[in-house]
């Protein structure tokens, strides 16, 4: 399900009208209509909407996990977090740097704009679109909230894994090539999502749709001159 379908499901289960939801979270009814119709892909009010409809913000925002919390699973997860805090050290010291009480983070979509004459991409966050992630989920994926960004897939080269218009989460702290991992790269001022494979003296740029998009092979020098690795993909909104 996409965002609008999840929202309509939650509203239907709660027997909630667009007018009721709009008043409850302080939105115009027309804005709620845009969300339910798919004209708008997300909202900065996702957490408030989820609370009012009694669903999990992660599920509503991006389809992650179950629709509802259960008392049993909540108690179990809180217990697990409390008992293992000293063991978790994905980025820095947990006691000092990881705030479990602040559960969610809003990640913005990156717009890639061309920097005239510079041969590089200028990355700008789109304040009109963002997705809510739980910090704990990011933590489990080894991604610092400050390093998590979103970019949109363009074209069919990564089908069937990624479709045109899908959104992927990238970790901008990971720019070194790990063989077989997928990255957002800036290639001659064009944003591309590709799998990178390093080989002696060269780099292979690979698409999932290899029948239509054969491997591109570059020397290391050519790769360094033409390619900027923006970050490694850690999540996708893959549509069906």
TrEMBL record:
Protein name: Transcriptional regulator
Domain of life: Bacteria
Lineage of producing organism: Bacteria, Pseudomonadati, Pseudomonadota, Gammaproteobacteria, Enterobacterales
Biological process per Gene Ontology, one example term: proteolysis
Gene Ontology terms, MF aspect: DNA binding; serine-type endopeptidase activity
InterPro entries on file: Cro/C1-type_HTH, Lambda_DNA-bd_dom_sf, LexA-like, LexA/Signal_pep-like_sf, Pept_S26A_signal_pept_1_Ser-AS, Peptidase_S24_S26A/B/C
Pfam annotation, one family: Peptidase_S24
Key words, A-Z: DNA-binding, Hydrolase, Protease, Transcription, Transcription regulation
CDD domains cross-referenced by the UniProt entry: HTH_XRE (cd00093), S24_LexA-like (cd06529)
Gene Ontology CC annotations of this record: membrane
Ranges in coiled-coil conformation: none
């Amino acid at each position: 399900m996409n965002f609008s379908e999840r929202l309509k499901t939650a509203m239907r289960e709660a027997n909630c009208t667009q007018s009721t939801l709009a008043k409850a979270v302080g939105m115009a009814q027309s804005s709620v209509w845009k969300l339910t119709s798919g004209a708008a892909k997300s909202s900065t009010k996702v957490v408030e909407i989820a609370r009012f409809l009694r669903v999990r913000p992660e599920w509503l925002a991006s389809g992650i996990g179950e629709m509802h919390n259960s008392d049993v699973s909540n108690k179990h997860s809180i217990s697990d977090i409390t008992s293992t805090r000293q063991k978790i050290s994905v980025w820095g010291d947990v006691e000092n740097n990881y705030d479990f009480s602040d559960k969610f983070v809003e990640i913005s979509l990156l717009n890639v704009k061309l920097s005239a004459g510079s041969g590089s991409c200028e990355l700008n966050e789109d304040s009109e679109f963002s997705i809510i992630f739980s910090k704990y989920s990011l933590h489990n994926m080894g991604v610092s909230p400050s390093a998590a960004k979103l970019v949109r897939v363009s074209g069919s080269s990564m089908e069937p894994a990624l479709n045109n218009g899908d959104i992927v989460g990238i970790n901008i702290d990971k720019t070194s090539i790990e063989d077989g991992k997928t990255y957002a790269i800036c290639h001659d001022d064009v944003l591309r999502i590709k799998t990178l494979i390093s080989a002696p003296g060269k780099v292979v740029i690979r698409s999932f749709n290899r029948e239509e998009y054969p491997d591109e092979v570059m020397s290391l020098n050519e790769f360094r001159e033409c390619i900027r690795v923006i970050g490694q993909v850690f999540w996708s909104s893959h549509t069906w």
